[in-house]
Amino acid sequence: MVARTTFLLVEDDANDVFMVEHEFNQFPHLNLRHVSDGQEAVDYLVGTGEFADRSKYPIPNVILLDLKMPRLNGFDFLEWFHSESPGELRLIPVVVMSSSALPEDVKRAYKLGANSYMTKPVNWEEFRVRIKALGIYWSKHIETPNGTPTLR
User: Fold this and answer.
1) Burial (CB count <10 Å: 0-12, 13-18, 19+), residue 37
2) Inside any domain, residue 145
3) Does residue 148 form part of some domain?
4) Taking the model in full, what pTM does it have?
5) What confidence tier does 6 reach under pLDDT thresholds 50, 70, 90?
């Protein structure tokens, strides 16, 4: 039996969410959870409110993070994640998926601890190919920290 890899998608654009869900649903070993902004991602990771049920909202193996979102944006989330998140949560790989290809955004994301930066293509087919490759890469070829890190 293939182990399931849980991805937390932090994305406010419904079309992008649909495309990622569509591609990930083709692979039974990929488990996708979604939140709409950085603040919901914080709540999800620390297990507050509706996210307290870890059987329904498991700790992710990989975080897919948009940058431009309301409330707590992707940069603010990265700052919190790498300086304030509890315990071993900050070991979870973060893949930034942004429509911005601005060099200053790429550099800032890496400075704040992003593990990878992917510019979202406008072309639907190209986006599908990238999402599929991303899912396969992070679930089958890369060792990630345990899906249930110790929180301290």
Assistant:
1) buried
2) no
3) no
4) 0.91
5) very high
